[in-house]
Write a structure and sequence with these properties.
By secondary structure, the chain is α+β, with helices and mostly antiparallel strands. The chain contains eight helices and 20 strands.
Length: 346
């Protein structure tokens, strides 16, 4: 259903309050041609009504001649900020940046965050934003999961379809995404709700079976037949199966980059209001699939870069893959059992 401006403005106010926006602080709204006009207009009203000093920075899109999809996460190359010193300076001088454009996996984003500026990404359709407004309870739950990740040294994943994966951990920090930015220098994504980390580089081994009904992103495609990934020394060395496997192989070959086959982040979904089935209700270009990434009990892994976690691997190829029905263990502790989150509260 469409969202009224009033409801979306109230949703923005809730997120901005959780993000500790104060009167007199500077907010810069970062936009581009794909920015949803209602999301933008309501963000401008909400920030001004809360007493912020508000700017809008609109930048032209890039990478059209290289990307094979209109999805903002389909090609992680240069951004509109690359080489744009004036724009970067303006964002560094802001207390809060509302990213309605998508800066993920960019050097510029890291540089801005180091200045203490907070960045909140919000690019899903207004009705998704309104349905998945974050809460303090989301933060509590995700931080508890991140604490478990921090204490563990190995994540293992199994599934009825044949997944047998071993991921040594500890070289990279745990990351908690709960949908708002309540500390200086914090990045988050509204909507979200999951905990993740990056496995030790070149150490993950085993087999991942992307089973029927699992999802490929940015393809936004429910797999119709299993895809079998062989993981050796942290890289997918074989992609086997039928037509879905062939489509995945062909897509990845377009990047011509062996680093695109590396295991990137690993973790699990913790958002009970996100649904596995929602992706099937949207046109592919209307959403980036945050329901699929965040739905409770998925095992979410990706292929591609690890620089978001502090590593040095960069690549323009990034594929997120949420799996259902998996059992996830941290050392000997089960945190997801057959696709259901285990209550790990003390």
């Amino acid at each position: 259903m469409p969202v009224s401006d009033y409801q979306l403005i109230e949703s923005w106010k809730q997120v901005l309050t959780l993000s500790k926006l104060q009167p007199g602080q500077t907010v810069t709204v970062l936009t581009s041609t794909a920015t949803h006009p209602q999301t933008l207009s309501c963000a401008l009203i909400a920030t001004q009504s809360m007493g912020a000093i508000v700017n809008r920075l609109d930048l032209p899109p890039v990478n059209a001649e290289k990307a094979f999809s209109r999805d903002s996460l389909a090609y992680l190359g240069t951004t509109p900020l690359t080489g744009n010193k004036a724009a970067i300076a303006a964002l560094k001088e802001s207390d809060l940046v509302l990213d309605l454009m998508t800066l993920l996996f960019s050097h510029e984003q890291h540089d801005i965050l180091k200045s203490g500026t907070k960045i909140l990404l919000a690019v899903e359709p207004p009705e998704v934003l309104a349905r998945l407004v974050p809460t303090e309870a989301d933060r509590t739950r995700v931080l508890a999961a991140a604490k478990l990740i921090t204490a563990a040294r190995r994540m293992t994943v199994t599934s009825p379809g044949g997944t047998e994966l071993s991921c040594p951990m500890g070289d990279f920090p745990a990351i908690a995404e709960y949908g708002f930015v309540d500390e200086p220098g914090r990045w988050d994504h509204w909507p979200s709700g999951f905990a993740l980390t990056f496995p030790n580089d070149r150490q993950t081994t085993g087999v991942i079976v992307i089973d029927k009904g699992d999802i490929l992103l940015p393809q936004k495609h429910y797999v119709s037949e299993p895809i079998r990934l062989t993981i050796e020394d942290g890289y997918a060395t074989k992609i086997e199966g039928g037509i879905d496997a062939a489509l995945l192989r062909d897509y990845m070959e377009t990047f011509n980059d062996p680093e695109g086959y590396a295991i990137s982040h690993i973790g699990w979904g913790l958002q009970p209001r996100a649904r596995w089935s929602t992706l099937g209700l949207y046109d592919r270009e209307a959403t980036i699939g945050m329901d699929a990434r965040a739905f409770e009990g998925n095992f979410l892994f990706s292929l591609g870069p690890n620089n978001e976690g502090g590593g040095d691997r960069t690549t323009t190829c990034h594929i997120d893959i949420p799996l259902r029905n998996c059992t996830v263990r941290l050392d000997d502790k089960v945190v997801v059992q057959d696709g259901r989150v285990v209550d790990f509260r003390a």
